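**Paired protein data**
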Amino acid sequence: MRSFEYYTPTKVIFGKDTHLKIGELLKDYNCHKVLIHYGSESAVKSGLIHEISKCLTEAGIDFVTLGGVVPNPRLSKVREGISLCQKESVDFILAVGGGSVIDSAKAIGYGVANPWTDVWNFFLKTEIPNACLPIGAIPTIAASGSEMSGSCVITNEDGWLKRGSTRSDLCRPKFTLMNPRLTYTLPEYQTESGCVDILLHTMERYFVNIETMEITDSISESLMQTVIYNARILLNEPGNYNARAEIMWAGSLSHNGLTGCGTGGGDWACHQLEHELGGLYDVTHGAGLAALWGSWARYVYDANPERFAQFATNIFDIPCFADYENTALAGIEAMEDFFRSIHMPTSLHELGLDLTDEQIHELAFKCSFEDTRTIGVFKQLNMKDMEKIYAMAR
């Protein structure tokens, strides 16, 4: 077990119609002008942005709006937001949307609070931010956990590089207003892709090659079982409030650091591999993770088959066979069967990508930062390993 620090300062207000408390809540932060940051026009057409604007007006809080955030949020939109905030003297950012919107808001917050450098440097990790505008979040999809995390991921259109910032409590949202009803209208694909993202945030921390804490393992395993159970319910009952609520809360707990206590931080190879897919081909993040996970797992499980066997037994009730290897492989297959059951891809072809050897090489070249880094801790992977995993996933 590794030593750890755990700090989760985000205030959570959870339940039906909690987003309508935003005006009174913002008064506590003494802000003078708020940027309401959101994604597609559906947030406007649904009336959600109007409801939030009305709450701020009634509370006497001035605001400006900026929509247009897309999945795999773009650096150009971040820079647009930075310019708008500087022009309008914005001192608080309210993200209304999914993980892409919240990540974009965090990046804008970094850019405004650190005008001495270009914000992209924080994602290249050549500079470290020393401040961030305060952020609040009203999630409309359960997936990324960004509403309680200290990280964000942005895509630079120049080279289509998808990169994450250094983890920092500076960008953790001050609060999140979580209303499961706001996720009712999500298409099935987005709902189930979000469930995969939640699972992988837990599994990245779970699959480590060290002795872990029993209590952390138990929390992680319970969280995974909860997501699997409720993801299946939402296939047939998209308006099931309890299932939506379980998934939404699981999304936050999966990425606020709780399931990483004592695990040394996690592996994160699957996320690094998927980031290149998202950057180059603009795929939905959770679906990309589902398409890659089985190939990654089969490539690395022999580094510690006992860990994968524990996963198989505790998550899918697979009996422990005579050797850990067969149990591990059965668990990997069970997870892929689950992905299929919720209509998620388990290969790049099913994701809609039929990649050439040259394209596979490009993905590995970019993921390895031009063959200058390795990824993963369960089994350390170099560029050739990455290339093999991408090829296995075809």
About this structure: The first helix runs from residue 22 to 27. The mean pLDDT is 95. The two ends are 36 Å apart (CA to CA). Strands lie at 11-14, 33-38, 62-66, 92-97, 135-139, 153-156, 161-164, 175-178.
